[in-house]
Design a protein that fits this description.
three-stranded antiparallel β-sheet, globular, 13 helices
Length: 427
């Protein structure tokens, strides 16, 4: 957002709670790899950064399913040339920081924690993480792009008629690592998102440019097959040996990573309104955090940046009008991708290895190949086009109704033909 605004001539001050990740080790363990797809690429192209980012990515045109017995099956995501792209969270953020700092009218202030906000006056108070010195900033509109646990949103919750929900999954996540081979190469298929679906839980792995994989476990927090059950190194080794036998030999540092890296939570944030007058607007996860199972969190947030920028330009920088237009444009679609992400968790965890799921996917691909303009699978619309999310959901539902109707008509024709043949043969 700072890049967009800086390029359009706005004076921008960015206040960041954390250290500058380009100059300090901010620690690991919470960096689920990002999956960049069409929406994010489009947004980056609008500010001239798509080519730079795409040089960092590893294309993943399909998912590799790892069965409990170690068997592998590959499922393409779309047509030839269509892929989602694994990109390092740290590398991408560093590139964006560099691009923003190249704008002479963009200034960064690191280690500044938001502690208060007066939504009526537009004043915002920060505390420096090292000195504890506090400062009150007065000036232009505030864009709260401060994540799922947004301090800016927390202050807006004081407003009357501000609706807010934070819904946690029963599952959490933990990051692990598969290191490169001794030769520096990849120890599994490079161009795939690897999934170990185990019904009530699962594990995924995304490739990194150094030959390693960022592995993420999604287990229940409590109960059977949960993080709560894994309290010792022997527990962890036994669990992974039973459920992920092909992955265990690839993770020599498994116990260390498992007990060193934190267990993260997974939540969906919904709120309304996203704005207050011409003073404040929420952006990205601060307005609509989603679980990571459709790979659209970053892509949706980048779409927000494009939409907010276009609204500002279209409204002649009348901030209140632009904020209202932005929310009206995006709210429905961000709610839609939140629902899709939750549904895709069940699909990835429970269905990707089932014969019925595979038959459905084959049918979708056949119809898409036969009628490429008129039938597009929902996954393809979400990941490989910029069709607004809610529109994609509606179109997919209409397509499925048509398919069911055609199947019913075909079955009726088959019955009639069979009856006619029987009548002709039997007289």
């Amino acid at each position: 957002m700072a890049v967009y605004l800086g390029r359009s001539g706005f004076e921008v001050d960015v206040y960041e709670k954390r250290l500058d990740l380009r100059r300090a080790d901010i620690g690991g363990g919470r960096s689920i790899n990002l999956a960049l797809s069409a929406r994010g690429i489009h947004a980056l192209s609008k500010v001239g950064l798509a080519d730079d980012v795409m040089r960092q990515v590893i294309p993943m045109p399909g998912r590799m399913i790892h069965a409990s017995d170690g068997g592998l099956s590959y499922q393409p995501y779309g047509r030839d040339g269509e892929a989602i792209n694994s990109v390092s969270r740290r590398g991408l953020n560093a590139l964006l920081l560099d691009a923003a700092e190249k704008q002479p009218n963009v200034r960064f202030h690191f280690r500044m924690k938001c502690v208060d906000l007066n939504h009526e006056s537009g004043e915002i108070e920060f505390e420096h993480a090292t000195t504890a010195a506090r400062s009150i900033i007065r000036g232009g509109p505030i864009i709260g792009a401060d994540g799922a646990f947004s301090a800016v949103r927390a202050r807006l919750q004081r407003l009357e008629r501000f609706s807010h929900s934070l819904e946690y999954l029963d599952h959490g996540y933990k990051e692990l690592t598969i290191p490169p081979a001794a030769s520096g190469g990849f120890r599994m298929e490079k161009h795939a998102l690897h999934i170990w679906p185990r019904r009530s839980f699962m594990m995924i792995a995304l490739p990194n440019s150094d030959g390693s994989y960022t592995v993420t476990c999604f287990f229940p927090m409590e109960g059977a097959n949960s993080f709560a059950e894994l309290s010792t190194e022997s527990d962890v080794r036994a669990f992974f040996g039973k459920h992920f036998p092909d992955a265990l030999p690839l993770m020599p540092d498994l116990p260390h990573d498992f007990f060193t890296n934190p267990t993260g939570t997974l939540a969906t944030v919904r709120c309304q309104p996203w704005r207050h007058q011409d003073k404040v607007v929420l952006l990205g996860d601060a307005a609509h955090a989603i679980v990571p199972f459709f790979g659209q969190g970053m892509n949706a947030a980048f779409e927000d940046c494009t939409a907010l920028h276009d609204c500002l330009v279209g409204c002649g920088a009348r901030w209140g009008e632009a904020f209202a237009k932005f929310e009206a444009l995006r709210k429905e679609h961000c709610d839609a991708i939140a629902d899709l992400a939750l549904a895709n968790f069940i699909e990835m965890r429970d269905h990707t290895g089932s014969p019925a799921f595979l038959r459905k996917k084959k049918r979708e691909k056949l119809l898409h190949r036969l009628f490429p303009r008129h039938y597009v699978p929902l996954y393809s619309m979400v990941s490989f086009t910029c069709i607004p999310y809610a529109d994609a959901v509606r179109r997919a539902a209409a397509q499925e109704r048509l398919v069911r109707r055609c199947k019913w008509i075909a079955s009726m024709i088959l019955v009639l033909v069979t009856g006619l043949l029987a009548w002709l043969v039997l007289g």
